[in-house]
Specification:
Shape: globular
Largest sheet: 2 strands, antiparallel
Structural class: alpha+beta
Number of strands: 10
Order of helices and strands: EHHEEHHEEHHEEHHEEEHHHHHHHH
Strand content: 5-15%
């Protein structure tokens, strides 16, 4: 959208209301640039996320920049990003190869078909494991048709250590994770800057160095623990939600900062840690919210985006909160307003996607992302934490500039400014505005 009177339609996670415009397109993660020699640290960056985006490793960045055991970095710091060592040059001319940056939905078999190569050749060229697992943003070498795949005489090599990420769920301990991933407690403590108690928290994303990838995969029926979001409706209680999601009352209370009474309110967005989901379940976004049912193609796009966010990992809520504040300051928007909207929309949980395909911390739908891209003069990727916050703050800035007063600007973020001007505030919009203004005093 390019008109300031058109609804920004930031619709909607499990925590906000329902917008009037629905985006059908699935957001695809922006292709990561090739690893550069220098990188300037931005708000919200962590070494693990920089490594994931640029195709290198935490250990390589720590070593190249003489970082401490916690891999501490600061905004504005210039990091040296080591590139992978070039492959040895074959004695005979080899068929030409190309590179491909992985986007959501890519598989090795599909890429082999597209480029006229083979699965085996791509796996060998990129050192993939037996599952041929790839991640969004990863740069792959695609050997040309006819490229020779090296054969190996003798026994297969032992599984190679790699670096994995793990989202902490209820019941996790560092010692249990070390055993599960075939690494050591000391390695996990060092890679994540943990203290001597090796304390971890539910929802925290850990870097697991030295994880070994075996040739066998877990049985499909085994359940895996994950973190999901739930919007409170009439009749919900924390104990009932714990039973429904296969977690505990204490875990929900701790993850959401509830008091000893475990009081929750209708419309509140709860983080549900340790929810058990059968392995292989592809979707967790429903098709209805607040009485509105969304088209199948919109919900499918939402589920794909949620799966992408979970696969690439997201910053912690504290990191997202700091990123929202700094971005608002940089863009000349009241930080209390941006923080209040972000908290109302997602609770600072970037791994949030609504049935309307509203994405991330600021809950921006793709069409609103296009509008925000026009406002800032560059293409924004809503799956990227920084771009998502920039999009939301840019729209807030525009609404504050064009709306007659602050309540109307806030209503415009929820309902769309043109709709507010034409129809007035709906009842759920009035509640949204009241909530945001109340939260502003908390974040002032």
């Amino acid at each position: 959208m390019t008109s300031t009177t058109t609804s920004p339609c930031l619709r909607r996670t499990v925590g906000g209301g329902v917008g009037l415009a629905i985006a059908a397109a699935t957001i695809t993660a922006t292709a990561s640039p090739a690893a550069a020699e220098d990188y300037v640290v931005q708000p919200g960056d962590t070494v693990s996320h920089i490594a994931a985006r640029t195709g290198t490793t935490v250990n390589a960045i720590v070593s190249a920049n003489n970082l401490d055991a916690r891999a501490t970095i600061r905004i504005g710091q210039v990091l040296t990003l080591p590139t992978a060592a070039p492959a040895p040059v074959a004695a005979a001319p080899a068929p030409a190869a190309t590179t491909h940056t992985v986007v959501a939905g890519d598989t090795v078999s599909a890429l082999a078909k597209r480029y006229g190569s083979t699965v085996q050749a791509i796996v060998a060229a990129n050192g993939l494991d037996s599952r041929a697992f790839i991640r969004v943003g990863q740069t792959l070498t695609i050997p040309a048709a006819g490229a020779t795949v090296p054969t190996q005489a003798g026994p297969a090599p032992a599984p190679a250590p790699t670096t994995a990420t793990h989202l902490v769920v209820a019941g996790d301990t560092v010692s249990a994770l070390a055993k599960r991933y075939g690494t050591t407690v000391d390695a996990i403590v060092s890679a994540n800057g943990l203290d001597s108690r090796a304390l971890i928290r539910i929802g925290q994303t850990l870097t697991i160095p030295g994880a070994t990838t075996g040739s066998t995969t877990p049985a499909p029926a085994a359940p895996t623990a994950t973190t999901t979001a739930h919007t409170v409706v009439s009749g919900d209680t924390v104990s009932a939600l714990a039973t429904r999601y296969g977690t505990t009352v204490d875990a929900i209370v701790s993850a959401n900062g509830l008091d000893s009474r475990a009081l929750i309110r209708i419309g509140q967005t709860l983080t549900i840690p340790g929810a058990t989901v059968p392995q292989g379940t592809a979707t967790s976004v429903g098709n209805t919210f607040a009485g509105r049912t969304y088209p199948a193609h919109v919900v499918a796009a939402a589920n794909e985006n949620l799966a992408t966010l979970r696969s690439i990992g997201v910053p912690s809520k504290d990191e997202m909160r700091a990123l929202v504040r700094q971005t608002a300051i940089d863009m000349g928007v009241d930080p209390a307003l941006a923080l209040a909207v972000a908290y109302q929309e997602s609770g600072f949980n970037h791994a949030s996607v609504s049935p309307a395909n509203a994405i991330g911390t600021m809950q921006v739908i793709p069409t609103s992302g296009d509008w925000a891209s026009d406002l800032v003069g560059r293409r924004l990727n809503l799956l990227d934490p920084r771009d998502n916050v920039v999009a939301g703050v840019a729209i807030l800035r525009q609404l504050v500039r064009t709306a007659p007063d602050l309540p109307t600007a806030i209503a415009g973020y929820y309902q769309g400014l043109s709709s507010v001007t034409r129809n007035g505030m709906y009842e759920d919009t009035k509640r949204y505005v009241a909530n945001v203004q109340s939260l502003m005093s908390r974040f002032a």
